[in-house]
Amino acid sequence: MKLGPSLHRIGSDIVAVYLVDTPEGVTVIDAGLAGQWHELVTELTAMGRSLHDVRGLVLTHGDSDHIGFAERLRRDHGVPVYVHEADAARARGEVSSKPEWGHVRVGPTARFLWYALRRNGLRTTPLTEVVTMRDGDVLQLPGAPRVIGLPGHSPGSVAIHVPAADAVFVGDALTTRHVLTGAQGPQPAPFTDDPAEALASLRRLEGLGVTWVLPGHGTPWNRGVDEALREVSRAAAEAS
User: Fold this and answer.
1) Pairing relationship of beta strands 167-171 and 175-177 according to DSSP bridges
2) Is 136 helix (H, G, I), strand (E, B) or coil?
3) Residue 45 contacts by C-beta under 8 Å, 6 or more apart in sequence?
4) Are 168 and 213 in contact (CB under 8 A)?
5) What's the chain's Rg over C-alpha atoms?
């Protein structure tokens, strides 16, 4: 799906992956589920691109529903995979977390689990090698993505700011569709290690001035980052 001149999405509101397309090549943001590989290839073809045009894959964090096809892209096509140094072990499958699920509704939760199951979400291959990055780094990749540390969902959660796409990719720092309840709109994401820290970290996005706020789960948001943050704060206050 084309969102803008340099911006594409594959997947769905349940699990999303993004592509930044520039004359220098393609940067992929997150790797979703392993079974979304064919969607990646199909979207690249529709863009007039191929896997040879992918210069790098940047992970917003190391959870299994964000690293799905990452190792395949790295191993078979030589694409470097970037992850914050605090989540490197997580992406390699060396550590894991068991955060609280919180409130759930049967229907939305079942849809999330079924979607993941059908796309090999239970058979994720951990990464063998990663390129570590830090807060403030500007990566030498198409779109010159800038790393903004947002610890809380995981220790190494980040946002990726790409001015060329007028977008910030936020992974699970916030969501616009709660996969366990079905609630719509910007709000705190589930499965978060430290919810208070995650909420506080979002202040680092204030004043960023981009139109698109793109989460790993939920509808793409195109009403600006500050409005999204206000909605998240409101949702958090109502839930407390």
Assistant:
1) unpaired
2) coil
3) none
4) yes
5) 16
